[in-house]
Amino acid sequence: MPVRHKVGVTAAVTHAYHSRRTGFITAVARVCGARRTVCTTQVWASRQPGYEATERPITNRHPAFTARPVPTFLTWQAAPSVLFLLSLQSVRPVSDDRRARFNFIKMKRTGNFFKIVFTVLLANLSLLTSHAADRFVPFRYGNFDTWVVRHVHESAVIGGNDKTLYEPGPARELTSNNPYVNLGGSPWGTSNVMAKVMGIVKTNVSVYRDAHGAGHCAKLVTHIETCKVLGLMNIKVLAAGSIFLGDVREPITGTKDGPKALNWGIPFTLRPKAVRFDYRVETPASRNRIRQNGFSKATAVAGPDYCTAVLYLQKRHEDAKGNITAQRVGTMVVHYGQSTKGWVDGASYEIHYGNITAKPFYDAATMGLRSTDYARNSKGESVIVHETGWAASGETPTHIILQFSSSHGGAYVGTPGNTLWIDNVGLVY
């Protein structure tokens, strides 16, 4: 409601009003004293080229302030704030004995108004600072919208099935049994592999392309891979779904050579503060896992299964013989042991730098130094990367390891049915 009293104060208010063809700017309005004529100027400027601004005076008698909120933006990226537009309206005259009292009220309200404006400006600046510091950089093909689709024909001795294997990368379709190498500069390897043992072609499929929103995502599934030899002997192997930064050297020639075929990690020299992705989990929540390697019956493994996401930053060194050692620069490990109610979007997990063994969240089994991962040296040989210690907290890495898996516990261990969906993977700086 307008304050219906004469007030002596000077106000400068600028307001832009957008319409389809014209806009106006209210210039400085000067309020002189009681019973004086107040003049303001509205400058009308056409948005059409070639038109000049015109002015027209407006007069009000006995002005008073009114305020209404209008939306504005500090920058194109900033969150919207509220600015108060002051206008002038004619009011009926008041007595001089009431003028002093309302002058005091007006001064108080004016002071509160500027406090509000100042607070809003600080809030917007704070938002600008936070947005500027939170920069998300996705991995190549980390949105999993495009995939290489492989059609592989298995050997007749084990059934002669046609299998479809999915690999994150450019949209492409392959119809041969040729060994796969990452296409389109894709940094992602998967547990979808082709094996060729004694001339027999066999595949494993535990990573699938699935729908998410208007695009696609990666679906990782723990399952029992079966193989019937000559229609008589059944071989059952538990396989977990996994995607990771790196690649796989095909074909796999045997169970013992499987780990050596994996090339863990890619070159990386930055220091992100977090990893961010969307995820969804479904798990049967069994009390124990199983181990099934194809050569014996399934056996129980103590402890429930869970899906995992791990990230390690390493500073690697290769000696003259091709041996690779590394210091651990950064660590992030997260477990998912319960089903989610749909998707969890934009989950961010901090990367911890330096020696974290004294931190309360430290878990030696999953976060400790490792000497189990293979990588290819400069000679093309697969060697184990031996982590020898913790790097200083300010050290710069040379490589990054990032893996998502539907189960934990190592090869042939897990719970059939454990499923992890992953999408929109990237790093936060």
CATH class group of the largest domain: Mainly Beta
Give the overall pLDDT as a whole number: 80
- Number of E-type strands: 34
Instruction: Output the CATH topology of the largest domain.
Output: Jelly Rolls
Structural domain tally: 2
Shape: elongated
Strand content: over 45%
Helix/strand/pairing category: mainly beta
Helix content: 10-25%
The N- and C-terminal alpha carbons lie at a distance of 48 Å
Over the alpha carbons, how many angstroms does the gyration radius reach?
34 Å
The biggest sheet, with number of strands, parallel, antiparallel or mixed sense and barrel status, is: 10 strands, mixed
Task: Give the uncertain stretches in residue-range form.
Answer: 1-91
CATH architecture of the largest domain: Sandwich
Number of helices: 3
Describe the structure.
With 429 residues, this protein is mostly beta strands. The chain folds into two domains: 10-133, no CATH class; 136-428, Sandwich (Jelly Rolls), CATH 2.60.120. Helices cover 11% and strands 47% of the residues. It is built from three helices and 34 strands. The protein has helices at residues 96-133, 258-261, 364-367; strands spanning 10-11, 16-18, 22-26, 29-30, 37-46, 54-61, 63-72, 81-90, 136-138, 147-153, 162-168, 172-174, 188-190, 193-197, 200-204, 207-212, 215-221, 223-229, 233-239, 242-248, 262-264, 266-267, 274-282, 289-291, 299-301, 307-318, 324-336, 344-350, 352-353, 374-376, 382-390, 399-405, 413-414, 419-428. Strands 13, 20, 21, 22, 26, 27, 29, 30, 31 and 32 form a ten-stranded mixed β-sheet that branches. Strands 9, 16, 17, 23, 28 and 34 form a six-stranded antiparallel β-sheet that branches. The longest helix is centred in the first third of the chain and has 38 residues, at 96-133. The two termini are 48 Å apart. 28% of the residues are buried.
